[in-house]
Amino acid sequence: MAQKPIVLRVGEDIKYNHDYFNNEFTKRFNVVANEEPDRASFIKALKDKKYGDFAAIYRPHFQTGGEMGQWDDELIPLLPASCRIFASAGAGFNWADTEALAKRGIWYANGAGASDEAVSDTALFMVLSVFRNWWRSQKAARTCDPDQFHAMHKLVGSISYNPRGHILGIVGLGNISKKLAQKARDALGMEIHYYDVVRADEATEKSLGVTYHDTLFSLLGVADCVSLHTPLNAHTQDLMNKEAFAAMKDGARIINTARGQVVNEDALIEALQSGKISGAGLDVHYHEPQVSKVLAEMDNVVLTCHNGGAAITTRINFELNAMKNIMEVVGDNGGYKGEPLTPVNKK
């Protein structure tokens, strides 16, 4: 009987999809766990071929499996020629050089789709929060002080707006932001505009009722609230900088559920302090997990702990989809079988 292809698991073992793992995945593959606690020992293990000629790398949980650090030109050339795919939980992939993996003939597949509902809900919550100033009201209520209660009861009504009739500007029209567009349009009555480096097809634009802008600054000039949905890379780091904020409407709002470093933190603080930007909702942070103490003290800023996709349903599907991606790519003999369900790169 032929030996089953090896899958190297990085990070914690599966937690949710035991039936699929036992009845489908391990019937096809021999799963071995990385035992190295740090980058140096992991590099040595790869050089020594400790885990053999594995056909895939499997990361079931995006919050673990990062002990080896950045997957870059130091690590990737050490992977065996037999490696076909790196399948990871999570939507982000800024910690892995996907182009370098592609040059080695290795697919990188993320958990696209698994967190769409949860992250779009988070963005919708942020939109509502920055229009209605709910954080100010919640903060005052938690003091249990009648004077602060009355003061905020008076203030919030004089500085808040209904989202209906306002323009939501979306940067990056992907699966998450398409759901946000639909929710903000149908539930809140907002008008949706978007910018993306690749324009959506006519049918998609029509179904979502969205208006396209061919430049970022064109979108920023009309949006009452901007929601960011772009991956972090060399082109998008500090995308929202001093010039970008200057191009926005006076009193506009900004939401970031993408990656912290898409927004230049100093520029955002300056725009908030000057009143150019009237509010911000940030699920992600520039120096994460360190949150800016300046932003934390601002009453017009809503902050969460990168919990956009934090739902059990998301975790279950992240774990399952990573296994399914490997099942699609690696054949019984360890060779290429097909393409992943959610590829990020092209080998």
Automatic annotation (TrEMBL):
Q: Which organism is it from?
A: Emericellopsis atlantica
D-isomer specific 2-hydroxyacid dehydrogenase catalytic domain residues are 64-326
CDD domains found in the cross-reference section? Mand_dh_like
Span of domain D-isomer specific 2-hydroxyacid dehydrogenase NAD-binding: 127-308
Database matches in InterPro entries? D-isomer_2-hydroxyacid_DH (IPR050223), D-isomer_2_OHA_DH_cat_dom (IPR006139), D-isomer_DH_CS (IPR029753), D-isomer_DH_NAD-bd (IPR006140), NAD(P)-bd_dom_sf (IPR036291)
PROSITE patterns of this UniProt entry? Answer: D_2_HYDROXYACID_DH_3 (PS00671)
Q: Which UniProt keywords apply?
A: Oxidoreductase
Which molecular function term from Gene Ontology is one that the record holds? Answer: hydroxypyruvate reductase [NAD(P)H] activity
Give the family, as the similarity comment puts it. Answer: Belongs to the D-isomer specific 2-hydroxyacid dehydrogenase family.
Gene3D superfamilies per the UniProt record, alphabetical: NAD(P)-binding Rossmann-like Domain
For this record, the Gene Ontology CC terms, alphabetical, are: cytosol
Highest taxon, organism lineage: Eukaryota
Q: Where is the signal peptide?
A: none
Task: Kindly name one Pfam family recorded for this protein.
Answer: 2-Hacid_dh_C
Q: What is this protein called?
A: Uncharacterized protein
